Amino acid sequence: MSTAAERIYPAAKPLPERLAIEALRFRAEQGDTQEWLSAQETALAKVWDNDEDEVWNGASTLDEPAPPIQRFPSPADAGIIPG
Q: pTM value?
């Protein structure tokens, strides 16, 4: 027996991005998102749980602040070339 996510995917895959987003918004408005999160986790486990994917585990998300940008002095400020 397949999971709900496996049954939904073939129907949702050909949707244009605009309609896919609308479907997701509709579903989010219906509540009970825990079921959907569980279905997504099950469906994506094969993609996420492998050695090749481990490199992404330390990646920052959009919710985290970006690391500060290291600024280097200009050559003139560093005394390398006359200013």
A: 0.32
Give per-residue pLDDT as tens, 28-59: 777 666 777 787 888 888 777 888 888 887 77
CB atoms within 10 A of CB 26: 9
Distance between CA 35 and CA 60 in Å, rounded? 26
Helix 17-29 and helix 33-48: axis angle, to 10°? 130
DSSP the chain: ---HHHHHHHHHTTS-HHHHHHHHHHHHHT--HHHHHHHHHHHHHHHHSSGGGGGGGG---TTSPPPPPPP---TTTTTSS--
